[in-house]
Fold:
Amino acid sequence: MANTRKRLLAASAATALVVSLAACGNGSNDDDSSSNADGEKGGTLTYLLASPVGHTDPHRVYVGRDISNFSRTVYRQLVTFPTATDLETANTPVPDLATDTGTSSDGGKVWQFTVKDGVKWQDGKEITCEDFKYGASRAFANDVITGGPNYLLSYLDIPTDADGAPVYKGPYTDKGQADFDKAVTCEDKTITYNFKKAWPDFPLAIAALHMLDPYRADLDKGEGSNFEIFSNGPYMLEGKWEENKGGTLIRNPEYDPDTDTTDNRNAFPDKIVFEIGKTPETINQLLIEDNAEVQAAVTGTRVLPQFIAKASGLGDRYLNVESPYVDYLVPNTKRLSLEVREALAVSTNVKAWITAGGGELFYKPADSIVNPVVPGYQPVEQFKDLGEGDPEAAKAILEEAGVKMPYKLKFTYDGASETADKQSAALKETWDKAGFDVTLNPLTDAYYPTIQDPNADSDVTWAGWGADWPSALTVTAPLFDSRINLTPSSNNQDYGNYKSDEFNSLVDEAQAAGTLEEQTAALQKADAVLGKDYAYVPLEISLFNWVHGSKVNFATTPASNGFPDLGLISVTK
Amino acid sequence: MTATASNLESESLPDPTGHPDELDRAKIAGKSPTKLAMERFRKDKLSMVSFIIVVLYLVGGILAPFLVSFGFLDPRGYNQDLLNKFTLPEGSFGGMSWSHPLGVEPGTGRDVMSRVWLGTTLSLTIALIASLLAMAIGTVLGIIAGFTGGMTDSVIGRLIDLTLSFPSTLMLLALSAPMYEVLTKNVHVPEGDVAWATYVVVFLAIFGWPPIARLIRGQVLSIREREFVHAATLFGASRRRMYFKEILPNLWAPLLVSFTLLLPAYISAEAALSYLGVSIKPPTPTLGNVLRDSLNYAEFDFVYFFSPAFVIALIVVCFNLLGDGLRDALDPKSGR
Structure:
């Protein structure tokens, strides 16, 4: 399970971002251009990317930017999130390929959807219930279909073997096929999913991720399908997708807009060209100068700190939006006692970290690991005002704890950029004043595999996370539940080796809850436990800064995770 | 020291008869090759200027750590209140002021002059140790190869070819992480700056000695045919005596020249390496890592970009000019 899902990769403005759902449309100083749903049809839109897209196979896509891009263009889902900017509406799924948003029975353990009439693949064939069933089966081949979400493996009602893995091994072998056929059933156009445990927010999960997308069994080449796109949306791929170059989307003649919810897929441009390979610096520069070749271009590469002074003065070609990600510090609970963790949190200078990372246009202080856009967010008492840190108070805590001072502390962070170096040195300043002796440990490659070593000698680690769908259950539980994370060879997402029975039982309570209200209440208590134990220290919420060409009607929505929303963007002549 | 032919000449002191003619002649005859070389060097204005700048660099480099400990330089202190909302320095010319003569760093507000100054010290130290090591290895192997000849010569010759055939920069980058592990875990070099510096020094030296060894071997081939060497052999001098007492003293001129040319090469190599992220890491400044960060601001904070770039360029040019000047002075026949 050493995949790199959902993670935010690099403290600074590096490009790789991950999954999650809810971004927030209301940035600090944007003029909300996202309400622009009446663009002109036609033109060619260029989408500039600095690094390759990992997968275009719908069941392997797990990066926030790609999920949204493909949702709006080629991969329709059972239900999807609308392009609304109002958070309440944005977090409510609407029917897409299904006739409604699903009906549940047996306390949320059984979910049923009916596939619409007249929805077709790009070759004109109808999308059938069997296609959906086949799509759900692919996640179980987790040796072939890697990188994607794996929630189905633990939720679908399929017996497990001695290792706790489902007996069904995916469509490429015959193992456990009968069990899968019982868990997912098709009756005419109605598909039924049977789960082991209640999944009250299941529609949110499948609107946010592509894990239940339909897939054509006759076109599946397993690993070989990694860069294939077989569309059922308004666009289809022209020629091939090249890993290091990108691809071109043209209109799909078989797509019938009448089967789609209005305004979700406006599909304004005639062509969308994904262009991979320019460096972030070049992309920044070209867009800021509004160079002729990028006047009809948007990008998934954020503005770098050194360009912000220029970029923010570009008027309506610039937009600042809040992202759904939270960056945080993880104290290693194996090595640091509760008092030391408290002293660490108290002396953490979030303000200096933010300034060194580019300032108030790049980050906003966080007071919980749960992003404010996630339902059920509430500030954690201990982290309410970390501000500039209080080294004096921290020193008093350390002295009272009677630890040897200066207390040696090794801080591990993703050292991919100079910005990250400056940010980390900023933290060191106040930590050192509080009586720590901090060694900075920048990692340049294989960041997550290194910090996942349960025997690592690091004391504090940096990490970033965004919710998979609007539920705190996709934040605190996957990050701190010791039962699913801690193994002898890896701590998975629990980088601080945190282990608490109190927390685990609250997660159980949340998972057993039949309603979202009960679930939320349990999760809020769980986050409070994490605060009390200083299991993490929240740093900031990343803000995204976008610059686009002058011939683009730009838009970004919560559904697009704060990235450009291709369902709304149009090109002017 | 063993008297070589040239030393003997210079020791023919004038006899103190007091005759003015004799004295004049003695003055002219009394100039040793060293003195002649120094005279030639002093007349070369460009070399003298470079020499003075190099000396200033060295003195500055030695002073920096003391200035830091006395608080005159502060390469680590954050002054984020000197930055504007875009985290660029407030004010013109990169935030230049009396307390920050070269301005402050964007994002952190650290004093640029302190960072560049201390960075120079660290970069110079690494380059200096690395070139001394490379010179030592190259000289010893060169003398042995040249003097012994035969099988030993070919083995060392092949070793030189082998070392030169490695893609050294690539290996430096690729091996940095595992070698750092080995240095800190197995050799117990203190983690962090010291271990990184050690790594760079060792690698630069390991890949830097072959040209020196070749040069020295060539020199030794001609020296070993000289009479005083034959004489020493006849007297039954030991090998070590032959290498270090008979031959080495005759090599100081080429050694000095190659040293002054190797050092600037290593200064820029170290800067390039810390630019690529395999030398001492920030927040400890080196010329390379200061340059790496400042490069991002070439357009938006030119003063910040200019300072480390200028310091590196100046020292490399001066060392090279000094090396050239020394070569011209020591070996006028080589010409330009």
